[in-house]
């Protein structure tokens, strides 16, 4: 299979309730379905440095609970080693968490659909204690 | 250089022997060579949440040994803090390891070949104790 | 919006001063501006396994200071657990840091420009104690 590629792009935003996970798989899958592409990639990007995008297990909610608990221990709030705390004890930890994960996720488009595995979901991970409106861009490159 | 892009996609699977690394550089390089693209990107994706894809040193096997030993210490099996242990003490650590690394790797295609650095290899990192058959999708976008 | 895609590719190098961060946002933005693409993605890649690319806060220099201090504690130099120390106590830590971050960063192109968020910058993170000349490839896929 070898087909000429085109670009489709969407922007949207997510209002997070504070630290934790918001699944966005459905929004990305809908963009792919509407674009009518058979094969390619879906790139999702967050324009912030204190939240991130991850792909993880979408069934048991304990997985997300444990992810948050694990990273809170790995990157402690209010660590006296941090110089940067302009916005509070969760400011620098949010930047570190974002760097240890990623500002983007790229998932293939296969047979006209977003090809997440059966147990995979795309999540926006808010790393600040308080909620924020987060801007995202989805870029589809496909044929 | 500015050339019209097209998409070529392949799926394949890897049978892992349990925790550790399986190099897939050759498989990806072969897809690139067969596609006849001069410039672009090769996106490799795993459809699972308990293994991941990394790019690391391809010469000294001690590097992979040390990576596995390091992450086993960073993300301990059977930590009593985990709620999610449906599939055993390596279940939740596998999800955490996958989130701290990545479900995908993207490498440029330059001058008709996969442009890994001299010392770079693409590895599937199995995070479960037992072996699994892992599904992968390679999406080439190039000209 | 749905437009035919093309590929534009550039290679460049950065001479790092040793451990720390070199911002490359401007170089990437310039490639995007010159390519004349309205929408797509910019993929930046480093061909090495002991430095990495991250997207983080571009304003307060304390953020980068704290990132370096945090990761130096998380991945200690000269840990007796490492077998691989051919090039010194910072050899294996550099590979681990690279795996915990990434060899690439992908940022959307929106409205003809590199769409970094207001507070986002793309940084090459040198993980070796001494400086190195680092090779990078920028691949733009867009319309």
Automatic annotation (TrEMBL), chains A, B, C:
Q: Name one Pfam family in it.
A: YjbQ
Give the highest taxon in the source lineage. Answer: Bacteria
Which InterPro entries does this chain map to?
A: UPF0047_YjbQ-like (IPR001602), YjbQ-like_sf (IPR035917)
Q: Which PANTHER family match?
A: UNCHARACTERIZED PROTEIN YJBQ-RELATED, UPF0047 PROTEIN C4A8.02C
Q: Which family does it belong to?
A: Belongs to the UPF0047 family.
Q: Which NCBIfam families match?
A: TIGR00149_YjbQ (TIGR00149)
Please give the name of this protein. Answer: YjbQ family protein
Organism of derivation: Verticiella sediminum
Q: Upper taxonomic classification of the species?
A: Bacteria, Pseudomonadati, Pseudomonadota, Betaproteobacteria, Burkholderiales
